[in-house]
TrEMBL record:
This is UvrABC system protein C. Residues 208-243 form the UVR domain. It comes from Cellulomonas xiejunii. The keyword Ribosomal protein does not apply. The lineage of its organism: Bacteria, Bacillati, Actinomycetota, Actinomycetes, Micrococcales. Residues 259-524 form the UvrC family homology region profile domain. InterPro entries: GIY-YIG_endonuc (IPR000305), GIY-YIG_endonuc_sf (IPR035901), GIY-YIG_UvrC_Cho (IPR047296), Hlx-hairpin-Hlx_DNA-bd_motif (IPR003583), RuvA_2-like (IPR010994), UVR_dom (IPR001943), UVR_dom_sf (IPR036876), UvrABC_protein_C (IPR050066). It comes from the Bacteria. Residues 473-502, 654-678 are annotated as: Disordered. HAMAP family: UvrC (MF_00203).
Amino acid sequence: MADPATYRPAPGEIPDAPGVYRFRDEHGRVVYVGKAKSLRNRLNSYFQDIAGLHPRTRQMVTTAAAVQWTVVGTEVEALALEYTWIKEYDPRFNVKYRDDKSYPYLAVTMADEVPRVQVMRGAKRRGTRYFGPYAHAWAIRETVDLLLRVFPVRTCSAGVFKRARQQGRPCLLGYIDKCSAPCVGRIGVDEHHQLAQDFCDFMAGDTARFTRRLTRAMKEAAAELDYERAARLRDDIKTLEKATERNAVVLSDGTDADVFALAGDELEAAVQVFHVRDGRIRGQRGWVVEKVEDIDDAALVEHLLQQVYGSEDPEAATASVPREVLVPVLPTDVEQVQAWLTGLRGSRVQVRVPQRGDKRELAATVLRNAEHALALHRTRRAGDLTSRSMALREIQEALDLPSAPLRIECYDVSHNQGTYQSASMVVFEDGLARKNEYRLFTVRGPQGQGARDDTAAMHEVITRRFRRYLAERADSHDPELGDDAEDDVPRTGPVDERTGRPTRFAYPPNLVVVDGGPPQVAAAAAALAELGIDDVALCGLAKRLEEVWLPGEEYPVILRRASEGLYLLQRVRDEAHRFAITAHRKRRSKGMTVSVLDDVPGLGPARKAALLRHFGSVKRLRAASAEEIATVPGMGERTAQAVVAALATPADPGTDVSAALPGGSTEPGDGEPGILGA
């Protein structure tokens, strides 16, 4: 642990102005981000007598090894910059609101040429309108199924849409009048875009306009004695009314507000929010947060509003930020928060505590939901924090480490008789998986054909990972420190100066775990020794008896079968194995899929894609002449003749000629991040 006095700024260095500050640890990692009206007053409060600090604050300042700050013009700018840095650096000691589930949204991809209605989860995309969140995906599908009768917007995937366009025949939804079939030109692109816009307007609460329009059309059809059309319009009106009634009216004045409630104690808190649009509850969402920093409810609410509204696409912020934000406690700097939200929405936003009437009753309902969510969270995760702390402590004692291994990296190699060799690196921090820091390696070997065995593959992977760490530590520096910074101040910056994103291998682990016994451990130890790294602990976990092997030791370390430490090591090892075998299977599947076009001279992936896009299939391409093939953009006469010659040879019955289209993803499956060939 560092003494805060060793990196305390000299008197007079800290400006008396608003700004944002960052505390970094000995490796340059940002561990805390904060903002202040006066940087001088706020930062000086961290360097008082350490015994007088809150335990969480004391842990943060002793973990840090340097402090930096950036002066901004106004407190609103400081609020926005603080959120940006928290999102970018993911500091360990900042409060993070994590969803207790992945909430589904109803999304309309308005940025597409032909917009699509679908269920979406995860990060929001630019140019897409979102409605919700909903508690269940089936609730979205029921609503969409009702509205497609009135607004027959495309719902099919890109592959289905493309195939229908090539075949000139719509899918089933087009035949049953639940899609306007823009794929076959039954409706124009501009008309379909307007249809999607009407769908969005209805979902946004403008329901009366469409009901009036359909009612007027129904009366006109009845006056013209077109009773069949009038009956269809009558049914459409009932459909809209049914879809509208799914959201109960809670406020009669067309309120546009988000209602927040907070329930918790000194260690954790649960947050619930009801999204009310046009007087109806359109969605509900919840978070559970661990209070890793010493802040009160007002600061918690401020951080919450930053997270909820700060991540919005600027184009969608007008629809996402309501006119009113009802909170249980006003944020610390309520004027600055209101100014920030007003800038996002483009019109005035009021942040206040409801005092009376229907809004206060609704806030009480949201609070009951938050209390229930906190009780459920405690029931599900009772002892979880204690178990993780116990596991890290047991590993520290068993391996005789100087401190608890807060960051653990585990490596595994997967192959099939030496082919398609892939290796994984998984990361656990504070006993929890950090999937955004997982990495994949393609094992090349000295000749580019793969390593000779598992130990050579492990040696290569460890070497490549830590060589990158040493290179990034040497190359990266923080320009804020300047060239005349003290030698004892960390200069390693975790952010790539070109992209602004964290570098891949910026931080060393406290513990490296390899999947295997003494041979794999010896190979990893040799790789670390060759690079001169002696401050990273290393062990191996053998599958047969779950023995923990240390470098150079004749006998393994035996952990109790029921120990939390062994359980954590097993989870890390199993996750590395799962991640490696997923990558290996994907490479093997891709390598075993061949095409008759692969060996055509001068025909690369782009030209193959262009051919299949133009003709739709290899079967149609085989029937085309050289002159027809030469009309495809990028194709010349010589290449067209080569394609005709290649396709004139009968294909092997076991060959999958339909897989000629290149562009298979090199990212790992299951939606997890990773880098092949890192």
